[in-house]
Prior knowledge:
This protein has nine helices and 25 strands. The protein has helices spanning about 50-55, 85-90, 95-100, 240-245, 255-260, 265-270, 330-340, 360-365, 480-485; strands spanning about 5-25, 25-45, 60-65, 80, 100-125, 130-150, 170-185, 190-200, 210-220, 225-235, 245-255, 275-285, 295-305, 310-330, 370, 380-405, 410-425, 435, 450-460, 460-470, 475, 490, 495-505, 510-515, 545-555.
Amino acid sequence: SEGxxxxxxxxxxxxxxxxxxxxxxxFDWEATIGGAKYDAKRERPRxxxxxxxxxxxxxxxxxxxxxxxxxxxxxxxxxxxxxxxxDRFYGPISAADYASMSTMVKYHGVSDNVGASFxxxxxxxxxxxxxxxxxxxxxxxxxxxxxxxxxxIFPAVREIYNLTGTGGGGERSRYAAxxxxxxxxxxxxxxxxxxxxxxxxxxxxxxDARTWGAGLEFRPxxxxxxxxxxxxxxxxxxMHYVFSERSGSFGGITDFYRCFLAGxxxxxxxxxxxxxxxxxxxxxQGQPGLREETGNSWTAGFVWDVxxxxxxxxxxxxxxxxxxxxxxxxxxxxxxxxxCLSGTxxxxxxxxxxxxxxxxxxxETLARIDRDPTTNAITEIRSGPINLxxxxxxxxxxxxxxxxxxxxxxxxxxxxxxSHTLEQTQQASKGDPLLSYRDFNNNSDIRSRVRWSTxxxxxxxxxxxxxxxxxxxxxxxxxxxxFTSGDLASRVxxxxxxxxxxxxxxxxxxxxxxxxxxxxxxxxxxxxTFNSYPYFWQGNSPIGREIGxxxxxxxx
Length: 556
């Protein structure tokens, strides 16, 4: 029926006006002012707590531990008692019964962005090696959003069955000025300098920042370019990380620390019954106290045009960031609680826990969990955005490109790109040790990728073959007996996907293209230590072969 459908209504506006001209017969200028608005409404059918309880459970008969329900063996006190009608659980539900226990949950969100910019470019003066290029920009913008959720799903209300939600809203103004200068030092060397000032106005402690960058381009001969850059960076926290209201959700958890207190091994905890596996309430809320992210980076590399058809490039990079904003999930908090309190020096899955008991990280993590003082069951987990003290990454990017045009067979282009993460480091809190975590089992970042493509075109025809290789990934659970016995390797093999496209320009207006994604129907390699669906890391693609036809028609 119509009452079971979700309804979406979205409206967006994006308007911009611009002017351009020349100043002093030597500088080009461009001024832009514009604004955008997005308005979204959503309705979704959900069951109410009262309606679902009345229909599936019937009237409440009493409470365990009181009246006729006193002294029930193996049953905790304080639980409601019902006489279940199992026919209602397994039988059909009429439209009238569904209507009696359902309602429409409504959401409404609006976001606005208004901004203006002025850009001035040109040559300042001439040097023996060439003109000094110059560009400057002035910007001002105001952003706001307002997310209104149905008040019946707020964490403290819980009138809608198995659903909670959040609201939020705020505004932020930003002003910025920047410049860039390109200086030809001499014929083989060019220097690039840039600087920027940003000013934020909102409820956070984020105020202003000055960032700068420099780059060198050295060309000892025409076909070889050696380059290097250094830059500082600044980023304010995303608005919803700051302004979101308290939200909550119920989800199944495994209480690893409670298992530890009972002498149950982590590998057995998931199957140890309701005392250790139950539904817990997890909340999250924006943090106005989040600090801005700052950092610096440098790169060094080269581009070598070996021939007119063949070129090779490679770059090494290092990036260091402080106060990176990340979201600490409920599951990560429970895993860290076990590591902080068990004294084993391990996560529940057997990988190394890198923080000492009593460290700043453990102190902050444990403060996010509330337990019932009588039963020791978890009553609330407070997830949400936090600032990491430090995060760094080092890596290499390299590309080989080759192209050739033939009179008989058409044009061929081939490229092979490789990226590899050499090191990842992190410090959760000031004073904690610096961790090298690239190969940790709880690190979901892919450390290597290879992408190869070959394209062909001749006349009205074109085709492309693409290969994408996602590198190996650590096994999910190094505590698994198949791994500890030597039956499994420490990493799951790479995933290699092939795509193919063939197109033809039928007329000047009509173009057709056939696409085949995942030509060989390869599913992600299975991790035999991953004990839940889909049995491999969710970052890998679970989609098999896809075939599609695309048509483009241009109206004159």
